[in-house]
## 1
Amino acid sequence: MIVVKVGDLHKYYRNVHAVRGGSLEVEKGSVHAILGPNGAGKTTTIKCILGLLRPQSGEIHVLGSSKPEKVISKISYVPEAKEFYEFLSPVKAVRFCEKFVEHFDPSKALQLIKEFKLPENAKIGTFSHGMKTQLYLSLALAQNAELFIFDEPTWGLDPVVRNLVLEMIRDLAGDRTVLYTSHILSEVEKIADKVSIMVQGRFVFHGDLEEARKNFKYVIFDPQVEPPKEFVLMSFKRGGVPVAVVYGEENLGEVLRLYPGRVHVEPMNLEDIFMALVRGDVNVSE
Amino acid sequence: MLVNEMIKMRIRTVVIFLVMVAVLISVVALRPFVDQIFGSISQEQIPNFVKKLMGDPQTLLENLKKDDYYLWSQWFGKNLVQFIPLIALVIAFPIFAREIEHGTIHYLLTRSTRLRVYWSKSLTGLLINGLLLLILSILPVFITLALGWDVNYQNFPGYVVQAVCGGSFFFSLYLVFSVVSKDQVKPIVLGIVVMIGDAFLGMLKPLRFLNLYPYMSGSSVYLGLGVDWRYTFALTVLSVFLLLFGWYYFQRSEY
């Protein structure tokens, strides 16, 4: 079942074409990560999904509705800037949310605040960026939502807390769906079932991590060999040796057939794949 | 949601109330000294332009000796009326502009509908502004009764209607400034420009009707002409229009 469906989305900021025909499908119960460098259009896409921004064209369906506002109570969102009311303390923030947010579990929020070891009665205004993030996450995770959307949720957190947060996000999957943006590849590898990679307003890859690892390969050629352009996504030289990124078993088979014994194949991790797609600006999802 | 909005506004509301009570107490406390202050000034000492502005000083002094005139002119006509647009500005300007500037608007709009967010915030502000003006218009009743002043209490409902209605108009206007601004500075600057502009334009004869201060001070009520219903109706219609315009803009805004 598809929980979020985005089709041919276009969003301009005056003359800047921020999202260029982006399409995305998020399956129920999955952790779906949108990866991309800064300015790729990840946050803009998410804001369009939430109805905070109005796209110039394209279709958006969230939890079965084409109007995000109608299902907003079933969504919990953590924005890039985790700003909450600075005059409140965490305990008062929980009370505030209890009155305002539907399906909010105050005891769970307080338990998370304790788990993060946040000072319960200090003003939020005195908190560091990391503490504000932890508080925002406590409030967001205490919502009994069907869809959780996190925009760079671990930015500014120390490694211990980051792992704790990633575990919490991972635990949500199954019953709930998670849409998650990040540019930290190692953490995406830890928790995401599916990945969409965005570059310059376009989705250049959709798929699950296993599929990505299986399909993307490095092919290292003999120094005299020129990589065949028709079968490779991109090529470069590493220490004078030609290296190509090949997508799919078919293309790999062709390369191996053309240069038997003169190439060898190496696996790629997500970071390699991400770098190849970002640098090469290639699209393998269409 | 209404309770949450009241929590956000509580400090501003309490500070405004305490400042205004202090002003009212000082107005009442100065009452016995009016004779001394004005009596010690001879006619010749008063410059002509002041005489033009105040009218005949002797008549003014005679009027000020009357409790009713003193209370109306010094509280409603001089102090409260000047604070009405300022109170509206202090209450209205941060309602949306602060949420937008601080980014907390994202929290609100992804947890509730725009309809609920806009109207609960706007109506809470309108209610608090109205209640403050209602209390500040009625408070002199209790003080003057306690002091045994000779005041025409029948005028008070009229004073309340005109103060609350004028204050609501200013609130609605400043709320629009708050909705359309991405920071808190612009609505404050625009609000101050409106306050000064309103008084300035009112000095020009053809635009005298734009000066809301005589209306908000309840001058027609004091002069026995009753509530200026035409003006009240026009301001109510304008306030509703401004609130609806704010809603129209808020609905279409991107955050």
## 2
Amino acid sequence: MTLPEAAGLVLAFVARLITGAQGHWRGCAPMAEQRIYFANHQSHFDWVLIWASLPRELRAATRPIAARDYWTATPLKHWITREIFNAVYVSRERSADEDPLEPLAEALRHGDSLVIFPEGTRGHAVDPAPFKSGLFHLAQAFPEVPLVPAWIANVQRVMPKGEVVPVPILCSVTFGAPLRLAPGEDKRAFLDRARAAVMALREAD
Amino acid sequence: MGGLRELGVSQQVGLLFIVLFGALGAVTAYAVIRALRESTPEQQARDAWLLRELRALWLGATLFWVAWGTGAFVSTLLFGVVSFIALREFITLTATRRADHRSLLLAFFVVLPLQYVFVGVRAFDLFSVFIPVYVFLAIPVVSALGNDPTRFLERTAKIQWGITVCVYGMSHAPALLLLDLPGYRERGAFLVLYLVAVVVCAQLVQEAASTWLRRRPVARAISRSFSWRAWLSGALGAALVGALLYWITPFQPVPALVMGLLAGGCGTFGEFVMKALKRDAGVRHWGGRASVTGAVGLLDRVAPLCFAAPVFFHSVRWYFGWTVQATP
């Protein structure tokens, strides 16, 4: 076992100790197929929770998106995101000649699964904010990859914005039935349908 | 029975091991055979429930035995972990706000470890007043610093109540391990086993009596199974088991019976109170089924122990203080 693998196991154990990290697979089974998971976003802890609630075999091939300027700023942050989570780095500043989704597309061509938070930023409201269009563009470019909605419950109580130490409170991640882009579906309609699919899991739980 | 008392510690431990795991093994074998035959869906659900309960019992008994074998330190640690998981479940069920974050951190990462450290170093005076006095004052101060007056008293009270039940109550069980009773050295673990046995027995008898007697529930809105008759049956069952187990305790049969009655009665009240709390939090599930947040139902199982342990602990101390004074 390498150091990052061991650190990953320790981290997953700590996440489970603090939050329970219960994965409820309502709409699909945890399988080793390529998927794009998309979820509501309320805390920095969201990614760790989804990652810890996945079966261990799937964790290595399921990658988060990380802002390059923030997560490569110090050697430790860079090491954690690169070695443990195998993150896909994106730059927040958009340059004219570069497609911001290109690193994601590259990872998907490589066969990896992704976890994205289509709200774009952490929300504080009860309902998730309207989804950004990245999910739609990925669905268009990779029609064969199933899009799995997920609802993360309770995590905002674990680590509110501005706090660094998490409080032990049980959380759950509910995974729903996969979506696909319907032929000729409008961008806004698809994004609203995806958001509704995430919110529907809140009641289903 | 008197002869059993004269046995050495290791012989008593061996005997208890055979009795405990023998009984568990027999009941499990019976449950597995029952689950294999053809039956209606209701019966299948009951069989599945029984197997799930048994799995919890096996886990508890094994952990208990491992802790016992490895000494008081590991047992205290084990009870500390159970306390942590119970408090985590309790806090999940209560509506705390952002401003409570620091108080909760204090509860989980300072109060809980310190309380178990006090148990471990046998600082019994500090152990008895740390949470009721110092933590009682510290939590509202930290919460007030959070700068949020919304439902302040309610939030603070809930956190304090959770700490008192899940940490303070629970920590009295490992404290029994370390009580220095006259003529009862190295046998603290027997007292813990005695306590757990009478409390579990009170639950089982009360549960059976409530289905059997079908009495009018005292508080229908809270529990459909709690009636005074059923409660008394549970306490008497616990008293009987307590008297039968007197040979592992430092008591004579009659005090053992009274202690069993006391601990069993308190334990059943604890379960009743926890039902009220879950109703308040809007949780319908009871027992092993996972609920909304994935709470595993540990709180339901340990609540009787949390209520019974402090009463039992202090009864034991008073009883010995009194007998020592009576026979100078």
